[in-house]
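ok here's Lipocalin-like domain-containing protein:
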Amino acid sequence: MKNKFKFLGLLCMVFIAFSVVSFSCSKDTAPADKDFFVGTYTGTITYSSDGKNISDEDGKLTVVKVGSSYSFKFGSGIPDINNVKFEKSDDDTYVSVGSGVTGITISAHSLKMLVSNDDGTWTADCTR
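and the structure:
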C-alpha cells in the first residue's frame, strides 16, 4: 500500500510541475516584459532631405535595442534613427516619445512611422 501512495504522490508532483511550467511559459507574457518589437520589418520606407528622396517599396527596417532605447536601421541608403524611447499606448502598441522622434507606432506585427526633424523626413509602413 505504501508503494501506491508513493507512486500517487510522485504522479501528483509531476502533474503540478508540468502545470507550473506550462502556465509560466504561456503566450500571455506581456509584450512589455519582452523586446517583442526588436527584429526586421519589411514594407515601404522613404526618406527625404534637402531635395534628396529615397523610396523603397520592398524595403527592410531593423529595430535594435541599445540600452534602454531603440535604433531603427534602414536599408536602401536611408540614414538610421537612433536613441528612440517608447511608451505603451494600448493593445500592446507602443509610441515613440522625445524630441525629434515622435511619430513611430510599433507593435509585434507592424511598424508605422512619420518622423520629421532637422535631419529629414522618414516614413515607414511595414509588417513582419
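+1. Residues 35-127 form one domain.
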